[in-house]
Amino acid sequence: MSTPVKMPRLGESVAEGTIGAWLKNEGDLIEQDESLAEIETDKINAELPSPVAGRLAKILVPTGATVPVGTDIVLIEEDADVAAPAPAREAPAPAVSTPASASAAPSNGADRAAMPTSRGEEERQRISPLARRLAQEHDLNLNQIAGTGAGGRVRRDDIMAYLSQRETALPTAPVAVAQPRPASTPAPAVSAPTSTVGEDEELVTPGRMRLAIAEHMVRSKRTSPHATTVVEVDMTNIAKWLEKHKDEFKRREGHSISYVPFVMKAVCEGIRQFPFLNSSWTEDNKIIVKKRINLGIAVSTDAGLVVPVVHDADQYTLAGLAKQVWGVAQRARANKLTVQDMQGSTFVVNNPGTFGTIISVPIINQPHAGILSMDSVVKRPVVIEDDAIAVRSMMYLCLSFDHRVLDGAGAGGFLQAVRNKLQSYGREIDVY
Amino acid sequence: MQLEQDELLQVYFFMRLTRALEDRTRTLFLQGRVVGGVYTAQGHEATSVGAAMTLRPDDFIVPQHRDLGMHLVRGTTPRAIMGQWLARGNSPSLGRDGQLHIGDVHHGVIPSISMLGESLPVACGIGLTMKMRKRSTIVLAPCGDGATSTGPFHEALNFAAVQKLPIVFLVENNGYAYSTPNEKEFSLQNLSDRALAYGITGESVDGNDVLAVMETVGRAVAHVREGKGPALVESKTFRVRGHSEADRADYVPQALREAWLAKDPIQHFETYLSEQGILDASQKKAVEARVKAAIDDAVSFNEHSPAPDEATVADYLFAPDGLIAIIGEAGADDPSYVNALDRRTGQPYTSAQQVEEAVTRR
Amino acid sequence: MNTIVETKVTYLEAISQAMREEMRRDEAVFLIGEDVGTYGGAFKVSAGLQAEFGPERVIDAPMSEAAIIGSAVGAAMMGMRPIAEMQFIDFITCGFDQIVNMASKMYWRSGIPLPLVIRGPSGGGTHGGPFHSVSPEAWFFHVPGIKIVAPATAYDAKGLLKAAIRDNNPVLYLEHKYLYRLPELRETLPEGDYIVPIGQALVRREGEDMTILTYGAMVHQCLKAAQALEEADDLSVEVVDLRSLAPLDRQTIIASVKRTNKVLIVHEDTLTGGIGAELAAVLAQDVFEYLDGPITRVAAPDVPFPYAPSLEEAYLPNADKILAAARVLAAY
Q1: CATH of domain A2-82+105-114
Q2: Going by C-beta distance under 8 Å and a sequence separation of 6 or more, which residues neighbour residue C204?
Q3: Which of residues 182 through 241 in chain A touch C, CB cutoff 8 A?
Q4: Domain limits of chain C?
């Protein structure tokens, strides 16, 4: 019995993926979780672990091909011994020519071979005819538009939502009316058809990941009304512990520990007290509060910034968090992040402090309600109890939040909880 | 039977016209000016002309592909026939159908189709209407020996019999259905025996003797006109040429063909008329001249006729809304009725005209 | 009469009324078929007609579909307006040649109008099995020169039959045997004369999110499904009863799909080559840039019609199956 393996969604708004390389061939035996292929997307490249054990029966999508999320890309024969006859279509069921599997599967090789350029084919697969026409009529760049149809397909509602976000006046009677080109300056440089380059200038074409980041940043700012609030945290005890114990920790564990796990744990505590920081504002003006705390950790790689996820961060000890963080960072830099690594984040912790910056105003990772930057820990003279001055290791925590979801009070309260947690550590810290 | 001289000469004229028109059609076909399937009926003239001569003005015929003689007797013009063969835009079918698939219900001629046998149920519909409208008119419905094997033949005869429809079913047994001789087509000696199966009268006749045909068919017509139900007549003749002009018919034994050629109905009738002193050399010449004139006129007319209109090939699929007249009732030709004119052209139907000479009818 | 009684009639009675009224109105109209006269028809559609109009206008024919249809053709050529009944529409195949070669081509090739109606009970759901349940529309849909109508309500059954009888062309009138005596289809019909024009569809339920195109008994299944979709999924579904299959009311169909952007086609006939296929082609051609999802069909599978009740139910589309398909399309 052949089990199809589908193209995963490597990130919330990723709609398609490319087969970078097949790591297994037809006929190979596969263990569960063994890597089948390298998947490349706008956001990240990752390896795809097999959901089942068996034999690789048939590769459906060749190397280099790009298909929508959810497309069957390979068949694994689970019970390799028994040749099960393919069951005939259930005769009594009335025939329904459903769209989902038929059009999503690019596996009819003849059709694909006959199709023209990859750009045209990608477009056809990720946008409905109606939506494409609307996009043309409104002079939109499809790269700007996230699709909410099956398989991440862009459909009419997505165009309409995008247009209403752009605050272009639209008539309530919809799609048949062609809108005049809006007066405001249109799309970012990505869509500009011609950029003229001067003699002392150089034209650089950004890579896919850069383009995707650009789109996301613009969209994020347009989606969430950002406000940023900052607290300063006395990290002295943690700093001292790290100084004293981190080498030993590294020797024992094989990986290092840093401020990051401490902040993550404190964030979990903050979220426990202020759950709205772990939520999303929806298109139909509702708030979805998430019960699991999956912290995204921003990691800088050669290709750009990636945000892999530590799931259920609140369940780990400090040491456990350190291990998780180290793991995702390793994989990120080695370009080996898994599907699991990329999906499901609910809140992001940003760590630009490694570059020495002390305050930042981060941009929310959609569709979250907030993002926290932990900047450099810097020794500074501060006023302590009894108005004495002491030199302490201080760190600014900068929270950007979606002002639709909460106000300054909630944001401030969260930061206060985080700070309190961080400042609660004494000289002796049990990280396990 | 006693027929007026005029009538006999008329019969002779139509037989000569039939033969000559088919000969000319064959010539045009061999010249490539007529295309497709060309069906002629050399040797059938006595059957088809003779049978048609027994009818009255308002009777109907439902002719098949070898009934040119019947068409001509009942008013279908040589121009219309030639227009069909030459596929002219002003043919009765506007170039859309070929062969003898033409008719004019206002003149009692029903257009046939290629599925042989299927015309007989339609003939039943004509007869049924006559019965419902209490007319004294009848239907002459010919078919070939092959058609008697079809389902619709049996359904039609049975239906006509049980409903006592005023129809003379004329089976023109010419010995072959394409390449299939009688002995492979059915197990009877006389197709008129089929009448027994339907409870109707049946009679066979020498189909190459026009007077015999007229007598026998006339008897059947009288029977039917008296309301005694349908009648079956088998006219035994022979198809001395192929099924179509593209068929050499080598399957016919030459001896058989020659025997029938010797019984050519026109020659046979000519001899009779000469012996009776009805047809002399000058009269024969006069007939030939008339025949030639009619055919030359038909060909010339159509040579100057327009080609079919490609632009309208997909038009006129459905008749327009409006009142329809019952054919044969008074006022049926009032142009306010949809079926008074050919609404595709807005003109009267063009295939038939009143028979030129008044002929004494029995 | 002092009291006004509101008489509701069944779908079957509506058909009977149409024939009776037309036969009274026009002496050229007559009925011919098997068992239609003395017996009143296998389903009693023509009960009482022979008593009123006599055996010459309500003709008991032998078991001869070719003769029944052929003589109707001949009579129509003579200007009569015959109604040829096929006892079960399945038997129309026995008169196929008369329809496709004799009737359909007559006016186009000869200019002779053919005011002919062929009617008979079609469709399944009555345990009829493979030879008494067929939906024959696709066979004749493809033949130029034949009009086809399929009423779904008593009102339309009467109005469309009158229109068919008055039409000067061959009309195949497909009454649905499952609807004949359904209590829920009983309705009060207008007093006077009325027709439902051939070539006009009817929007039976308005909606914004999806269009369902359907006809015949399936209209009622689609309406049930549409109601359920509104209640459960807050989905607004428009149901268009085609009524006329040939010619199709392209204007209504296209206007609806342009507005809703998603279309589901439902028919009881088998899937491949059913009328839904033609509708899908027309829509793909004419409203491609208005489609927010693929054109979807729900139909019977491509096998003969089964006899056993459980198989019949598994075979036929119904409200549940329509609802499931609509949900998939809605989520696209």
Answers
A1: 2.40.50.100
A2: C219, C223, C239, C240, C241
A3: none
A4: 8-188, 202-331
Looking at beta carbons, which residues of chain A come within 8 Å of C296?
A: 96-99
Annotated active-site residue in C127, C132, C142, C220: C132
pTM: 0.67
Asked, for residue B322, whether it belongs to a domain, the answer is no
B163/C contact by beta carbon, under 8 A: yes
C256-269 pLDDT, tens per residue? 999 999 999 999 99
C112·B103 Cβ contact <8 A: yes
Residue with the larger pLDDT of the pair B105 and A102: B105
Q: Which CATH superfamily is domain A127-178 in?
A: E3-binding domain (4.10.320.10)
- The CATH number corresponding to A227-422 among 3.30.559.10, 3.40.50.720, 3.30.70.2640, 2.60.120.10 equals 3.30.559.10
Residue B290 domain-assigned (yes or no): yes
Mean pLDDT to the nearest integer, A48-52? 78
The angle subtended at Cα B345 by Cα B343 and Cα B349, nearest 5°, is 75
Contact C101 B118 (CB under 8 A): yes
Would you call A155 and C293 a contact, using CB atoms and an 8 Å cutoff?
yes
Tell me whether residues A89 and C258 touch, CB distance under 8 A.
no
Token pair recorded at residue A365 = 């990772």
Same fold, C8-188 and C202-331: yes
Instruction: Decide if C170 touches B, using CB distance below 8 A.
Output: no
Q: What is the DSSP letter of B347?
A: B
ipTM of the prediction: 0.92
Contact list in A for residue C292 (CB cut-off 8 A) is: 128-131, 155-156
Chain B: touching chains (3 or more CB pairs < 8 Å): C
Across C177-295, the runs of DSSP E, i.e. the strands, are: 187-188, 202-205, 210-214, 237-241, 244-246, 263-270
Homologous superfamily (CATH) of C8-188 is Thiamin diphosphate (ThDP)-binding fold, Pyr/PP domains (3.40.50.970)
Contact A133 C316 (CB under 8 A): no
CATH number for the domain harbouring residue B296: 3.40.50.970
A403 an active-site residue? Answer: yes
Separation in Å, CA of A176 to nearest CA in chain C: 8
Mean of pLDDT values over B67-75: 96
Q: Min CA distance, C131 vs chain A (Å)?
A: 18
pLDDT digits (tens, 9 = 90+) for A223-242: 899 999 999 999 999 999 99
Contact yes or no, B with A (3+ CB pairs under 8 Å): no
Of A226, A245, A255, A403, catalytic: A403
| Cβ-Cβ contacts under 8 Å, C314 against chain A | 92-94
Quick check: helix, strand or coil at residue C146?
coil
Decide if B159 and C62 are in contact by the 8 Å CB cutoff: yes
pLDDT of residue C5: 60
Span of A52-56, B205-209, C305-309, C320-324 with lowest mean pLDDT: A52-56
Interchain CB distance below 8 Å, A93 and C303: no
Whether the pLDDT of residue A351 is over 80: the answer is yes
pLDDT, mean over chain A: 80
Question: pLDDT band at B2, cuts 50/70/90?
Answer: low
Nearest alpha-carbon partner for A215 in A425, A11, A3, A5: A11
State the residue for tokens 């000559």.
Answer: B20
The residues spanned by each domain of chain A are 2-82+105-114, 127-178, 227-422
Cis bond upstream, residue C309 (ω within 30): no
Which has the higher per-residue pLDDT, B165 or A284? Answer: B165
Which CATH number, 3.20.20.390, 3.40.50.920, 3.40.50.300, 3.40.50.2300, labels domain C202-331?
Answer: 3.40.50.920
**pLDDT value at residue B333:** 86
Axis crossing angle, helix C218-233 with helix C319-331, rounded to the nearest 10: 50
Which of C78, C81, C108 is the closest to B96 by Cβ?
C108
* Domain membership of residue B190 as a residue range: 5-313
3-state secondary structure of A234: strand
How, if at all, do strands C296-300 and A95-96 pair?
A: antiparallel
Taking the C-alpha atoms of residue C328 and residue A151, their distance in angstroms, rounded to an integer, is: 13
